[in-house]
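Give me the fold.
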Amino acid sequence: MSQIPLLSILIFLPIIGILFMLLIRNNSDQSSNNLKLTALWISFINFIISLYLLFSFNQNDPDFQFVEQYFWIENGITYHLGVDGISVLFVVLTTMLVPLCILASYENIKFSIKEYLISFLALETFMIGVFCSLDLVLFYLFFEGGLIPMFLIIGIWGGERRVYSTFKFFLYTLAGSVFMLLAIIYIFIQTGTTDVETLLNYNFTRNEQIILWLAFFASFMVKIPMWPFHTWLPDAHVEAPTAGSVILAGVLLKMAGYGFIRFSIGFFPEASELFAPFIFALSVIAIIVTSLIALVQEDMKKLIAYSSVAHMGFVTLGIFTFTVQGIEGGIIQMISHGIVSAALFLCVGVVYDRLHTRDISRYGGLVNKMPIYAFSFMIFILASLGLPGTSGFVGEFLVLLSIFSINTYFAVFATTGVVLAATYSLWLYRRIIFGALIKDELSEMVDLTRREILIFAPLLILTILIGIFPKPVIDIIEPSTKKIVSQIENKLK
C-alpha cells in the first residue's frame, strides 16, 4: 500500500467522477438522480481514502509523508506532493465537506444539475491539490484554479446580485495573486527551483524577504480575507447557494491561512518578524470592526460572513506569534471554523429552503416547530462564540494565550472580540429560535428531515469531540508545528 500514490488518487478521483458524469444524459428525473448518486459516491469514496491517509499517517514524524515526485516541466519544477501534520487535517476537512455539500444540494438546485455537480467535483480537486502541493508552481495552479468552479457556482446558481458578487470575488482574489505569481517567477530565477522542501532551507536576503513576503501577502490577505480587503466575502456568501457558502467558508478561506504558515513564515521569517506588529494590528481591527458590523446585520448569511472575517483574525494573530501554541491555535481555529461556519451556513439553508428568506425579522419561535433544528443550531452558535467544551474554544484559547505572552495590548483588544461574538451570536439565535410562534407563515415549518440530520450529525459530533478532547488533533499538528518554529528560530539567529 505504501507504493500506491494516495495523494494523486485523492486529487484526481473527482476528475474521474466528472468523466463518468459526462456520459450520463441529463434528460429525466432518473438521470438527475444518477448524477447526484455518482457525485455523492465519488466524493464519499474520496473521504474514505482521506481517512485511510489520516490513520496511516505517522503523527510522530514531522516531515512530509506519502511523498510523490515526478519530472514535470523542467529541472526545478516537478510534480511534487506530500502532506505533514498540518496539511493532512485540511485534506480530511475538504473531503468531508464536499459530500455534505452534495447532500445539501439534493433538492434546492433546480436546473443544470450536471454542471453544478461537475463544478463541485472540480473544486474538490483544486482544493485538495493546494494542501498536497510541494512545488510553488503546482500550488499556484491549484490555488488559482479553484476560482473557476467557484466563479461558476456563484455566478450561475447564486442569488439576484450573483453577477456583481461573482466578478467582485474573482477580481479581488485574482488581482492579489498576480503579485504572488511574480514572486514565484523571481524565486525560480534566483534559486533555480520551486520545490518547497528545498526553499524551506534556502536563506533569502533581508531585502528579498521583504519584497517577496509582501507579494505573497497581497494574495493571502485577500483570500483569507483580512481587513480592509474583506468586502468581497459578505457579498459572495449572500449570493452563493448554500453549498457554495459552505465550501467558501469551510475550505477556501483556509487555503490562505495555510499559505501564511507554509510560505510566508516558512520562507521569509525575517520579513514575517518585521511585519508581525502590522499583522497583529490588522487582525485586531478585523476582529473588532467586523464583529460590530455583524451586530447590525438583518441578513443571516451576512452576519455569519462578517463573523468569519473576525474568526480568521484570530487565525492570523496566532500564526504570526511564531510560537508552537500560537500556530497550533491558528490551525485548530481554522479546522473548527471550517466545521462550525459550514454548519451555520447549512442552518441558514435549512430555513431558507422552507421560507425562502434570510431576513432575521421574518423568523421567531422556531423552537416550537423545529426542536431538533433548534438544538443543532444552538451547539453551532455556542461553538462560534467560543464556549468551553466546543471546538471554537480550543483554538481561540491557544491563540490568546500566545498573544498575551507577546503583547498584552493586542491580547486585550482581541479578547473583546470574544465578547462581541457572544453578543451577535446569541442575538441571532434568540430572534430566530426563541419567543412565541406568532407569524402565520412559520406555522407550516417542519423539523429537520433524515437527510438534513445525516448532514448535521458528523458536524455536531466533531464540534463537541474536538472541544472536549482536542488531544488527538494537537498530537497530529504538534510535531510539524515544532519543526516550523525550530526552522524559523534557526534562520533568525
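The mean pLDDT is 89.
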